[in-house]
């Protein structure tokens, strides 16, 4: 199959073999974490307590529940939005339009769940369904990616993603062929990136908190902290939903198994690991330590938000008084690169803030187990890899100007270390 741009993009993620391995390893890791979190020893590196059979994984009732959840989020996505934003210019010079109503979807979901709980819905029963729910989500991700792959066979080359057109079906299935798969105005990638998984994550956390209250009389301080920190993170992502339109996931990566599984299964079922761990392994937490952890989360959030907002403000309007005084490097594309302020400290200050928050989410779980630190370890690896991919793309976009930026701001994420 001829590559639409004439030359093939270099293969990432270890090529077809790496992609095939990841398609097995990622779901296996997710199930391992789910099973180990509820086991007594909770050893990250130990064997799972048991291997779940089909009776544990498969439940038509749970599948129906999962599909209802997806349907509810799709319906909320279709509601009138406070704003419709335009994405970046595409290869064919057009721009897609996206509804900005993610925060509204979060609030409406909270209202609906609140009503359902007061009408007797046993939300505390959800933690018992996590394994079959994760199985339903994984199955959906596989089937969905397969349908997306088939759909991409019929689109023009200008609609394909730069990376997912190697011609190797396994690799392209994993990375995704089509950049912005849509039916009418319903954008599948944008929908999945921010709605069912992120909102599902906070709902699972809340269910774990409610079950802890049922089991122990009240939720623990550690559980409150984990719920509060992660709700702030998800609320922030949905409030600043428009910013996702400039991420590499939307502008560069196709929609294939990696993002479908990542968005629908990986995020809700592994990002809620700390709350899962706390339900089965209560941790005492005194007020002084809790306050110190809150300060760490606040510091991480401050860096993350200020850095992201500074770049977004600058990209929208470089003459905005909040950023007009910052030093910049001109590039051949006509755009400029910030070289002072947050983006003059390290080349990815937002990643630094995100990592500090990740640490703060694990600390309420104590230091007796490695398991609750999985997110921090995985996230460090994800961001180091993502940073390298972004640098590669920026070097291509900005050439010499990017090299000058790298000379002037030599550290990538952590000042004086990396
Ligand atoms: N929790 C999770 O699982 C994940 C969270 N995240 C978070 O999502 C957020 C978005 O991350 P991500 O999409 O990776 O990337 P960034 O928001 O860091 O965006 C990178 C882009 O910013 C622009 N840029 C880079 N340097 C400069 C500069 N000096 N001046 C102006 N513009 C610059 C470039 O794009 P251009 O020049 O084209 O504007 C570059 O491609 C981050 O806060 C990250 O921490 C990300 C991944 C996973
Ligand atoms: C399954 C693999 C390990 C890789 C999966 C990656 C995805 C889980 C992430 C890719 C980019 C993401 C972003 C976010 C969540 C995780 C995924 C989907 C955010 C929405 C998180 C909140 C931030 O404020 C914005 C992020 C954008 C990128």
From TrEMBL:
GO CC list: endoplasmic reticulum membrane; nuclear inner membrane
Pathway(s) per entry: Steroid biosynthesis; cholesterol biosynthesis
Keyword Oxidoreductase tagged: yes
Domain of life of the organism encoding this protein: Eukaryota
Compartment(s): Endomembrane system; Endoplasmic reticulum membrane; Microsome membrane
One Pfam family recorded for the sequence: ERG4_ERG24
InterPro entries, per database record: ERG24_DHCR-like, Sterol_reductase_CS
Record's bilayer topology term: Multi-pass membrane protein
Segments crossing the lipid bilayer: 17-37, 57-79, 100-123, 129-150, 255-273, 285-304, 355-379
Catalytic activity: 5alpha-cholest-8,14-dien-3beta-ol + NADPH + H(+) = 5alpha-cholest-8-en-3beta-ol + NADP(+); 4,4-dimethyl-8,14-cholestadien-3beta-ol + NADPH + H(+) = 4,4-dimethyl-5alpha-cholest-8-en-3beta-ol + NADP(+); 4,4-dimethyl-5alpha-cholesta-8,24-dien-3beta-ol + NADP(+) = 4,4-dimethyl-5alpha-cholesta-8,14,24-trien-3beta-ol + NADPH + H(+)
EC number: 1.3.1.70
Cross-referenced Gene3D superfamilies: 1.20.120.1630
GO biological process: cholesterol biosynthetic process
Keywords tagged on the record: Cholesterol biosynthesis, Cholesterol metabolism, Endoplasmic reticulum, Lipid biosynthesis, Lipid metabolism, Membrane, Oxidoreductase, Steroid biosynthesis, Steroid metabolism, Sterol biosynthesis, Sterol metabolism, Transmembrane, Transmembrane helix
MF term (GO), any: Delta14-sterol reductase activity
Record-stated family: Belongs to the ERG4/ERG24 family.
Function: Catalyzes the reduction of the C14-unsaturated bond of lanosterol, as part of the metabolic pathway leading to cholesterol biosynthesis.
The protein's name in its UniProt record: Delta(14)-sterol reductase TM7SF2
Source organism (scientific name): Lynx pardinus
Organism phylogeny: Eukaryota, Metazoa, Chordata, Craniata, Vertebrata
